[in-house]
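User: Predict the structure for this protein chain, please.
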Amino acid sequence: MKKTNAARILDRLKISYELIEYEVDESDLSAVHVAATARIQIDQVYKTLVLEGDKTGNFVCIIPGGDEIDLKKAAIVSSNKKVAMIPMKDLEPLTGYIRGGCSPLGMKKNFPVYIDISAFDQPAIYISAGVRGMQIKLAPADLVIACKANKAAIATETN
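Assistant: Here is the predicted structure, written as structure tokens:
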């Protein structure tokens, strides 16, 4: 199994993790599909979203795979009045990652990162390893250390 930049960052920080490979379906890159394919509970799969604020610029939110981002809450925690998801065409130039393979670790720039507080109800969560077809399993507290992240209530349950 090939190591990704995200995995190398965790190695450098001496943070323990596990790489999990899964079959990619180009027609369905959703976290729900990743969870089903990799046989992981959806409440443990977290997706990485990149947003743009009107005052602070870009920032990253990590939320449960089955939930939606609450833009009002994201604006408040990031000290913005208005926030929006970045256009998909801007994802790779901005982060170095493509849709379905965007990891909060190893982006081109160190953006502020916010992790939904629900992650801390789990012993371990899964995030993208930075490529489609691979997830990193790690403790939420270790992800906070690796990303210099802030805990925040930023997700809205969709069920």
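The mean pLDDT is 95.
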